[in-house]
Amino acid sequence: MGRSDRSDAADRSIDRRALIRRAAATGALVWTAPVVIDSLASPAAAATGFTPPCGCSFLVFNSNCAINGNQTPCNSIPPGCVPTAGLDACFQQSCPADGSITVTSTCGPNCEISNATAKDGDDCVQGTITNTNGVDTVTWPPPLHGNYAQITVFLNCVCP
Q: What is the pTM for the complete model shown?
């Protein structure tokens, strides 16, 4: 083996630090790709392990943001719309001390909040539904009569 053979081999060799850096970058890429792909495919399922059902479902909870499936929704239930166990996994609720309420859907891009009401004394109050960057949020101002007795959020999901 001549001197030129050794210099060619040295040019093609990699030092230990470069090898470690490349291995770490490759490992991070291999680990990250499935996580990113899964979260894009189903954000709700990735975050909560719950997949919302196709069609209309609803959730009833009280002024303390606690699920209360024993109450009847304030407004009429659309035909075929059913209360769904586990649906609370698709929502983030905020019930501050002033009595106002905010509910944000984390159910994924195929689901939207179609209707939302809260009972204030004898009145049914419609929530204000907004969509920001594909995320539905419904809000209610502080109630006029104490706390909202119940809050109902209707979710409509289209399955692929």
A: 0.63
Q: List the strands of the sheet with 111-120, edge to edge.
A: 82-83, 55-61, 150-157, 111-120, 123-126
- Strand pairing of 135-140 and 150-157? unpaired
Taking the alpha carbons at both ends of the chain, their separation in whole angstroms is: 65
| Residue 133 burial (C-beta neighbours within 10 Å; 0-12, 13-18, 19+) | exposed
Full domain range(s) for residue 147: 47-157
Residue-wise pLDDT for 69-91, tens only, equals 656 667 678 888 888 888 888 88
> In this structure, are 73 and 152 located in the same domain?
yes
Same domain, 64 and 9: no
- 51 and 23, same structural domain? no
Four-CA torsion 84, 88, 92, 98, nearest 10 degrees: 90
Tens-digit pLDDT profile for residues 24-54: 555 443 433 333 333 333 343 344 567 888 8
